[in-house]
Design brief:
Cathepsin D, subunit A, domain 1, mainly beta, two-stranded parallel ribbon
């Protein structure tokens, strides 16, 4: 059995180095199975015979918005219950996440979370075997180290 390598709080700074996102605030949610990332301008396309996604990730404070333009290979289309309990289909990517000095790959669904306080939600599947959660703490790991 693989043991978790880090302890994280209820909220953490997360980097997505494969997407060029240095850091964004994420809500850690052990009640959610899947992870979700807020994106805009989501566009599927074909690249070398495979399904890819083009999208923008807002970074920094909401006003003025700054964006990172991203491309990632689509790995799946998932049916996920949103915060309202409704079933919806979401595109899914596999990418590295970085918390503090620790990084690993995780599947993340892409969706609109503009009405949510956190642009990313890290679910239990992505944390499994990598992190333990201290729900009474926040931002234990600090900013992600630069890869």
């Amino acid at each position: 059995m693989k043991h978790p390598t880090i302890i994280i709080g209820a909220c953490e700074w997360i980097g997505l180095p494969d997407l060029g996102v240095n850091r964004l605030r994420a809500r850690i949610d052990t009640g959610a199975k899947t992870s979700a990332l807020h994106v805009s301008d989501l566009e599927p396309f074909r690249k070398r015979g495979q399904d890819w996604l083009r999208f923008r990730v807002p970074v920094g404070t909401p006003r003025p918005n700054r964006y990172v333009d991203c491309e990632a290979k689509m790995v799946n289309v998932r049916k996920v219950r949103n915060t309202s309990g409704e079933l919806e289909e979401r595109f899914c990517i596999d990418t590295r996440i970085m918390i503090g000095f620790t990084q690993w790959n995780a599947e993340i669904t892409l969706t609109c979370r503009k009405k949510m306080r956190y642009r990313m939600l890290l679910g239990r599947t992505a944390m499994s075997h990598h992190a333990l959660v201290d729900p009474g703490s926040r931002y234990i790991q600090g900013f992600p180290s630069q890869p």
